[in-house]
Amino acid sequence: MKFKKTLSLIFIAILSFVLIACEDKSYMEEAIAEVDMLMEDLGFENGDTFSLINKYQSVTITWESMDLDIIDQNGDVNSIGLNTDVEVMIVVTFTEGKVTEERNYFVMVYKIDNTDPDPDPDPDPEPDPDEADREKINLVKNSLNLPETTRTNLDLVTLSNGVVLSWSSNHDAITSEGIVTRSEDEDIEVTLTVTLTSGNVTDTKEFVVIVEREDVLTEAKNSLVLPTSTDKNLELPLTTGKDNLVKVTWESNNVEVMTHEGVVNRSLTEDVTVTLTATLTYKEQTPQTRDFEVVVLKDPLLDNVVASLEVPTEVVRDLILPTNIEGVSIVWKSNNAAITPEGVVTRSQEESIDVTLTATLNYKGHEKELVFEVVVLVAPTERLSDPFGLVLQMDRKAIVVGAYSPGPAYANQLRFVWYLNGESVAEDIITHNSGGFDYFFESFLETLPAGTYTVKVQGLSNGTTALDSNLVEVPGTITKNLPQLDSLTLTLKDNLVTWEPVLNAESYAIYVNDAFVKDTTLTSFEIDPESLELLYGNHTIKVVASATGFMDSQATTSFEYVNENAQQVEAPTNLNIDTDGVLTWDSVEHATGYRIVVGSQTITLDLETSFDLTTLNLAGGEHNVELYALGDGQDYLNSNKAEITYTAPEPAQQLLPLTAAAIVVGNDPGHYFFLIHNNPAGQTVVEQEGWDGDFFIEVIKDGEVVLTI
Question: How far apart are CA 11 and CA 430, in angstroms?
Fold first, then answer.
């Protein structure tokens, strides 16, 4: 009788399925080794089923038959028609995260033997219908594993190879879904029981798992992360750990380089190592500390400015001598009036002049001195003609120059000098041949700091046979505004104000009731009413984001400081509205005033206990009147509302005015008279409802009423 080794869903399940807490370990090699062993010397007959477990630890396993006529995608084996045994290639794919491996295996499919063999003289007994289920359960049961200890949730599988797994726990430290809750006091031993069910067969298995004690302070301390080096302010967390309930305070050993709040002041000469000490506190536990060494990188700005500062060795026109570059102040001195400290050049027509320019740079208290030796070349006697017809067109971001033909010594260049607060700060030299010209300045303006500029235009000569033209001012000014930082959105929860970081923001200024409190680089601020000396009641918290070269952005929120021991004053009682529309009520003890609300109108009173509702000019009909007694906001809170309904009277009908068409006025010597015309206009006056026939007459002289009838 031919030997064969068959693989069914039951036997494939021998692949171990281990349940553990989430780890970083790779199980790829173990999964491949298990399948290698499993797929060795496998054989199938017609009607068998090939299947493979789909999971090993964190590795997902899939397979594909390369001969679907013999082993289809469901694993059903069909050897009908085979006249010989056949090997079928199975491609198995192993996937773990983003890593994928493939292996090729060959299984034997046997041809069908004589389909009508002689009767077996010794037939096997009928199989136990539950045996297959028992084998499946045993294989899955033996493959189950859980870690002995855990700090994290467990992945409790509920289905494996057709076996249903249900879990139960004897302690809330691990739920039946594998959710772990750690105690801060002690390790907890938990017994997990899994019930395995397949068909009519059921079995159980127990695991004992120790849920490790949660050392909140130590774990919070170990979770803190700071960079090893920085050239920016640090955002030092003030809370961390379990539910952010661990408070962190910071201390720097060199506040001149980095403050306790993480604000950096970089050295201009060297990198500086700063030790930051974090002190963590939680409940009544003994505080813990942790030191971080952070290298604050050298600020290269002064060196960069020094390297960028240039002065031409031969001078034929005024110089732009900057007095500030990116916060570095520069003071210029000259040893000869041929060049002033402001860069104004005076050329002699007799000889060239040697000039020594000295620039003293100062940044954060550090000074550097640069010396430039230049020659002011002898001046020619001729001068180029001046540019004319200058027009500033802000809609086009352009300066229009008229048809300019300066002369034969023209260097085919126009010089646009930009002035800020009367000081020349930049120049833009543009190639120009002759005729009219449009200078588009938008891209050049982007390189300049914010401010309001004036511009002067000059034609440049070759410097030897003619002088440059005079500088001619362009009518009008050009303003560049600072870009606006993105808006802030504040979130207030309990006493903590938080916000999302603002792009490009360097710091945040905190104000309480418009009084400055502190600058911070963090994105949160804890309101401490006692240290801020706040009174009970509402307070305005304002946060202003700032950055060099940007307009500030700010947002406010309201914080209510409530006296938890404050009492609420009683609501007003005995409300009454008399026939004249006057509302009255009884005085309320401890009230500091009263508030009346009618629709959209709110009236705040002192201690008077009445109010004339007719002064509100309400529409006729019923109105709900709300009345509150006001507390002092410290020891006494506002009352609940008291209510009463007020019926406002309908307004009286306005009589029609007399018109020129309705009356005729006469003037006999010594008296005036008027008559109501017997015409439609007059009849409308006479017949109108509500008129009792009386007239009211005023005699006015020089703007004053002298007689009333």
Answer: 85
Q: 635 φ, ψ to 5°?
A: -95, -15
Min mean pLDDT across 21-30, 166-175, 195-204, 483-492 is at 21-30
CA distance 247 to 419: 53
Determine contact, residues 275/291, Cβ cutoff 8 Å.
yes
How far apart are the C-alpha atoms of 411 and 380, rounded to whole Å?
15
Tell me the three state secondary structure of residue 650. coil
- Structure confidence at residue 341 (pLDDT): 95
Helix (H) or strand (E) holding 479: strand 478-480
The CATH class, in words, for 567-648 is mainly beta
pLDDT value for 1 = 33
Tell me which amino acid residue 606 is. D
User: Which residue bears the tokens 């929860």?
Assistant: 493
How far out from the chain centre does Cα 494 lie?
Answer: 20
The residue whose two tokens read 């720097």 is 252
Fold of 391-480: Immunoglobulin-like (2.60.40)
pLDDT digit string, tens, across residues 567-602: 999 999 999 999 999 999 999 999 999 999 999 999
State the distance between the two ends of the chain, measured CA to CA, in whole angstroms.
Answer: 141
Helix and strand numbers, DSSP H then E, in the chain: 7, 48
Residue 495 to residue 539: CA distance in whole angstroms = 12
Tokens 């085979």 correspond to what residue? Answer: 82
Task: Give the CATH fold of the 216-296 domain.
Answer: Immunoglobulin-like (2.60.40)
Distance of alpha carbon 501 from its chain centroid, rounded? 5
Domain boundaries, the chain: 9-123, 137-211, 216-296, 302-376, 391-480, 490-561, 567-648, 663-708
Q: Is the pLDDT of residue 701 over 70?
A: yes
Per the prediction, the chain carries an average pLDDT of 87
Nearest CA to 59 out of 91, 21, 90, 18 is that of 18
Per-position b or e across 532-565, b if 16+ CB within 10 A of its CB: eeeebeebebbbbbbbeebeebbbebebebebee
Tell me the three state secondary structure of residue 446. Answer: coil
Per-residue pLDDT at 368: 92
What 3-state DSSP class applies to 216?
helix
Neighbours of 285 (CB within 10 A): 14
User: What is the average pLDDT across 210-225?
Assistant: 93
Residue 465 exposure: Cα atoms within 13 Å on the Cβ side: 7
Beta strand segments in 77-187, E: 86-96, 99-109, 149-150, 159-160, 163-169
The sign of the torsion formed by the CA atoms of 591, 593, 596, 602 equals: negative
Architecture of the domain delimited by 9-123: Sandwich (2.60)
**pLDDT tens for each residue of 261-290:** 998 999 888 999 999 999 999 989 999 999
Say what the pLDDT of residue 2 is.
Answer: 40
Among candidate residues 17, 25, 11, the one with its CA nearest the CA of residue 54: 17
Phi-psi region of 607 (alpha: psi -120 to 50; beta: other; left: phi over 0): alpha
- Residue 239 contacts by C-beta under 8 Å, 6 or more apart in sequence? 245, 246, 247, 248
pLDDT tens readout for residues 100-141? 999 888 888 888 876 555 566 666 677 777 888 888 899 898
Question: 391-480 with 567-648: one CATH topology?
Answer: yes
Query: Edge-to-edge strand order for the sheet containing 642-648?
Result: 601-605, 593-598, 621-630, 642-648
- 490-561: CATH architecture: Sandwich (2.60)
For tokens 């030897």, the residue is 464
Total count of residues recorded for the chain: 709
Strand-pair category, 567-568 with 593-598: unpaired
Residue 14 has pLDDT above 60, yes or no: no
Cβ neighbours of residue 383 closer than 8 Å, sequence gap 6 or more: 461, 466, 467, 468, 469, 470
